[in-house]
Amino acid sequence: MTQSPAKARALPRITDAKFVAGATHESQLPPPTGIEIAFAGRSNVGKSSLMNHLMGRRNLVRTSSTPGCTRQLSFFEVGFTDQSLVTLVDLPGYGYARRSKTERKLWAELIEGYLLARPTLAVVCLLIDFRRGLEPDDEDLLKMLAEEPRVARPKLQTLVVATKLDKVAQAQRKPAMLKVGKAAGRKVLPFSVKDQEMADGLWAELRRRTGLGIPTEPSLPHPTP
Questions:
Q1: Which DSSP string corresponds to 152-171?
Q2: Which terminus of the chain, N or C, has fewer Cβ atoms within 10 Å?
Q3: What is the DSSP letter of 202?
Q4: Could you tell me the domains of the chain?
Q5: Segment holding 123, helix H or strand E
Q6: Distances (CA, A) of 64 to 59, 159, 174
Q7: 3-class DSSP state for residue 10?
Q8: CA angle at 16 for the pair 9 and 130, rounded to the nearest 5°
Q9: pTM, whole model, 2 decimals?
Q10: DSSP labels for 32-93?
C-alpha cells in the first residue's frame, strides 16, 4: 500500500511552503492561477495534520482539538526543486453541528461554488477516518463532485484518502481498507502521519493526477521542519 523507496527517492524536494490567502466569501478568493488541490472531509478527520505533514511544516495549517475550527478556505503555495508549483487548499470541515444554520448555509454555498466553478481546481482529496469509513456526508460530497462543473476545465480528479491508519490494529487494516474501497467505488490511499512512505505515495499520486509528473533521478532528502 505504501510507495516504494525507489519512487520515494524520485520525488522532487519541497523548497518552500507558505500561506497565501484565506477566503470566507467568494469575493475574497485569490486569482485562479496555477494548479490547485483541495482537501475536504468531516471535522476532526485529521486534515490539518495531513496537510502539514505533506508540506513538511509543523504548524503552517492550524490544528485544533476542537472540531470545526477551520472557518475559511485557506490557500498554501508549495514549491519544489524541479521549479513546479502547486496550491493546496484547506476546506472547512463539514458535518459539525455547533454552527448556526446561517453560517453552515454560507459555508456550503462557498464550498460548492469553489468546487464546481474554480477553473484551476485539478484534484479534490476527500479524507475519511479509517475507523469510521465512508459516511453519508462523504457520499454527498462525492455525488456533488461528479456533477457538471460550472466552468470549462479538465475533468476533476477525486482521490479518497483514509486517515489515522496508525490508530487501527495491523490485523484490521486490510479488511477495513477493502471495505472502505468497496463503499467508495474507487481507489483509496491509506495515510498516517507516522509513515513518511505514505506521504510520499500520496504526493506521487497527486503529481501524477495533476500532470506535474515524477522525475526519474533521485532527489535530495526531505527537509527538516
A1: --SPPEEEEEEE-GGGS-HH
A2: C
A3: H
A4: 5-210 (3.40.50.300)
A5: strand 121-129
A6: 11, 24, 29
A7: helix
A8: 65
A9: 0.86
A10: --S-EEEEEEBTTSSHHHHHHHHHT-SSSS---SSTT---SEEEEEEEETTS-EEEEEEPPP
